[in-house]
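Hi L., both proteins are below.
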Amino acid sequence: MIHNPYRHVEGYNCFGCSPNNENGLQMQFYEDGEEIICDWEPRGFLQGYFNVLHGGIQATLMDEIAAWLVQVKMKTAGVTSRIDVRLKRPVPVNEGPLHLVARLVEKRRNLADIWVELHNPDGTLGAEGTITYYTFPEGVAREKLSYPGYELF
């Protein structure tokens, strides 16, 4: 499991990953080679259609895991520049945990393209896409985005 270095920072309330945000997604991550992985249990109040996870929440899950790839694998922080998500099939909220996988595809100067897949509990592909992050040099990430440094993950 990747340690969340922000969890005890006063005021930290990230919708995607804060374990203390009751209304948030409370995502947790781990590494598998060059990939960042998240197994996440959906909750019914996040549905769009009956028992189907809202598409905006799917995009948020994918954006959040991409952010953690930037922090852990690229050892810096950045901001979302572009989200290109393809919703492939309904993602259920009541059949068990979803499996997300993120990996770096390409880095062009300060832009990082991260491929993310969201798999349904039965293993089928629910959504996929490329999340592009504008990354900062580590010093700027520490100063402007409160990046704590790779060693704290």
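That was the first. Here is the second:
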Amino acid sequence: MASESWDPTAAGVLRLPSGRLVRGRGLRRPVPDGPVPTFAVYLQRRDPPPTAWPARWVRWPDFRLPTDRVDASAALHEAWERAAGERVEIACSGGIGRTGTALACLAVLDGVPRAEAVAFVREHYAPRAVETPWQRRYVVEFR
């Protein structure tokens, strides 16, 4: 891993099978102490507040799916690629449903079988990640 990666023991950091580290978090909580992201994907119904680091905003209402699946897929592919050597953060308001769904999609990109990606994220990130049946289906169908 490059020197731009997260501390693997930091709160919210998910280690993918390839060794890539991605931080998930809830935007309702303050930015954690320590290094800031070098790139982020924010999953919100409305624009998130401005950040000092590069970020992509994906319009994604709470408990739902992204309103533009092509844009969401492109953002998640970019996040996965950049996580090979950068501090990538994925976040929604609470850091559980949308964030967990996006992290499960990154796990799929990293080689976790689609049918196992939700369980992987629940085990290694948050037990309640991916909150709805349609979010689980989104992960299984993610390309």
